[in-house]
Amino acid sequence: MKVLLVGFKLSVGIEPYLNIIAKNLQAKRIEIKLCIEKRVADKCKDGYGIGLGGNSVQMLKDTLNVLNYFNYAKLLIHEKPTVVFFVSSHPLNSIAILITRIFGSRATIVSQIHDPLPHSGTSYGIFILISQILQCWISDKIIVAGKKLKENIKKYYLCSENKIHVMPLGTFREERSNSEEHTEEKIYIPTLGRIEDYKGIDVFLKSAGIILHMMKDKGINYKFLIAGSGDLQKYSNLIEKIPPKYLEIKNYIISDEEFDDILKKSYVCVLPYKDGTQSGTTAISYYNACPVIVSNVGSLPEYVQSGETGYVVEPNNPEQLAEKITLLLENNNLQKKLAIQSYSYYKENFRWSNITKTLVSVFKE
């Protein structure tokens, strides 16, 4: 088997996703080649650079650049892959698939769809949706990160259930055999990652205000944390209502090391999304033995065992969110129990050595 991994645009989340898939396929002695944006290809010995990635305008230019078609066809003819796996969304994907049908006719074409329904507020969301629908129609197999997303593909893309496969989104971390859940004193209640409207920063801040009132004079050491790059200006009024000693803000791209350090010091990680599909933060939280509280949107609830690894709350409900956070703040034994079970869930479900077995079986079907 020879796999060509294709990513014409590698965002902050997609680049480590492609890298860890490549690493784990190679660990199974599967030959891989990369067809990726030139910025990243220049740093990879197995990488062929096609396209410049970038913003929506650059993506459109890459899609209309006929030279990219010729370069991709040359790559297919030279490498002769048995599987072509498109790991991210891009309008150039559908053209590349048609080229694959001509110049790599024996190759199995697999497409990963991360967000079947684009997030609210996504620029050019309707064009992304149409592009992904076309891509799915002409692919042999489709991979999504949860059962709910599979249902979305069936319902809105009108694709056969048999071609859609569910594969969890694992951690972008080195595997380890033991957790460190008891070694750090807990202080944080964080929401982590890029600042976007759909992620419910306002819901998080409103619940913080409720908790401060509920926990007054109880002597428990805790601090709310917002960590990630993006514009927080629209939340300034809510931020000002939280006393500075109870709120910390890290408004920049958080490194993997700092991300893990925060989670090790957290009672629970909060994903108060208003809408969405899936998130890698759940797996990373479990990797660090940190329970999660997620909104009941997309496939987020599928990877939370309520009362075992965390809790599921309704979206846009700061009162319910505050109730669950307070439950863990006030009950140290419950928090430790959920921490231990979260790490156990990671070991069983989110290790890439296991996830890669699923991926290879999809390739071979």
UniProtKB/TrEMBL annotation:
<keyword id="KW-0808">Transferase</keyword>
<dbReference type="InterPro" id="IPR001296">
    <property type="entry name" value="Glyco_trans_1"/>
</dbReference>
<dbReference type="GO" id="GO:0016757">
    <property type="term" value="F:glycosyltransferase activity"/>
</dbReference>
<dbReference type="Pfam" id="PF00534">
    <property type="entry name" value="Glycos_transf_1"/>
</dbReference>
<protein>
    <submittedName>
        <fullName>Glycosyl transferase group 1</fullName>
    </submittedName>
</protein>
<feature type="domain" description="Glycosyl transferase family 1">
    <location>
        <begin position="173"/>
        <end position="341"/>
    </location>
</feature>
<dbReference type="GO" id="GO:0009103">
    <property type="term" value="P:lipopolysaccharide biosynthetic process"/>
</dbReference>
<dbReference type="InterPro" id="IPR028098">
    <property type="entry name" value="Glyco_trans_4-like_N"/>
</dbReference>
<dbReference type="Pfam" id="PF13439">
    <property type="entry name" value="Glyco_transf_4"/>
</dbReference>
<feature type="domain" description="Glycosyltransferase subfamily 4-like N-terminal">
    <location>
        <begin position="13"/>
        <end position="170"/>
    </location>
</feature>
